[in-house]
Design a protein that fits this description.
This protein is mainly α. The chain is built from four helices and two strands, in the order E-H-H-H-E-H. Strands 1-2 form a two-stranded antiparallel sheet. The protein is flat. The relative contact order is 0.19.
Length: 114
């Protein structure tokens, strides 16, 4: 699970206009359509996103991680939770534990270079 955040774009461009109105992946965010992504805005090196996930201690059995991932992803699909998150500008993405680990590894490399 990963939360994609459009909150900073909404704050900067409350009518969904301007360069921050699309996410880093190019997807238009609900209520924020019509803007440029970071590359189109002249800031291709700027790629910031809020991410939140749940981590388990090293050595946690793969079956336990898979069960937690499945249960959390299922809970995140509830209409009530999706509506609450949407009000805050968050859009859940459902990743496998391996996808999230790869994302964290890439982010670690990127921020160590910065």
């Amino acid at each position: 699970m990963n939360f994609r955040d459009a909150g900073d774009a909404a704050a900067a461009h409350p009518r969904g206009q301007g360069p921050a109105a699309r996410g880093d992946d190019g997807d238009a965010r609900q209520g924020l359509a019509g803007g440029a992504d970071h590359g189109e805005s002249g800031l291709p090196q700027l790629s910031l996103a809020f991410s939140a996930g749940i981590l388990a201690p090293a050595g946690t059995p793969a079956a336990v991680v898979a069960k937690l991932n499945a249960e959390i992803n299922e809970a995140m699909k509830s209409p009530e939770l999706a509506a609450s998150m949407g009000k805050l500008g968050f859009e859940p993405k459902f990743w496998s534990p391996q996808d999230y680990a790869a994302f964290l590894a890439e982010e670690g490399k990127r921020w160590r270079r910065s």
